[in-house]
Amino acid sequence: MPTINLLPWREELRKQRQQNFAIAAVAALALAALVAVGVNFYWNAKIAHQNERNARLEAEIAELDKQIEAIAGLERQRDRLIARMEIIEQLQRTRPESVYLFEQMVRILPDGVFFDNFTQDGRKLEFKGTAESSTRVSALMRNIESSQWLEDPGLEVVETSEEGGVRRSSFTVSARQVQQSEDEEPTP
Fold it and tell me: Would you place residue 54 in the very low, low, confident or very high pLDDT band (cuts 50, 70, 90)?
């Protein structure tokens, strides 16, 4: 005779499957949580590492900015020194010019002409003085024209006056000082 199993085996099988499913679901959730924690830890470590690199780069940039500022300061100082050197060289080149200029002032001065005042503004010269006659002022202008150190004579003012029976001409003459080239040897 056939035997019939009346035990609820299907319900036990269903319970066993539900239990296995619950265990698998809990294991999957635990594994998903573990993966999430691992990924979070990995990205936090990457972010921390990148922040460290950024901080190091910012420190290096700040150091380089200090060095750039120091270099810029040195360049400004070098430019100032170069400007000073150029001024000193120019003064050294033009140092004998004043001697030649005063020598030329003596050479261009005709008899009967006296300088009362002399001014120089850069290369522009202005002579004020008195002369025994206006022809002597003309001789002064011709002498300025023929000088190698002076050029462009210009008569500003001539006033003739009589003092104690003697005629005098007060004058103002302008001229320009010639700049000698560096390779040209000046001759008095």
Answer: very high
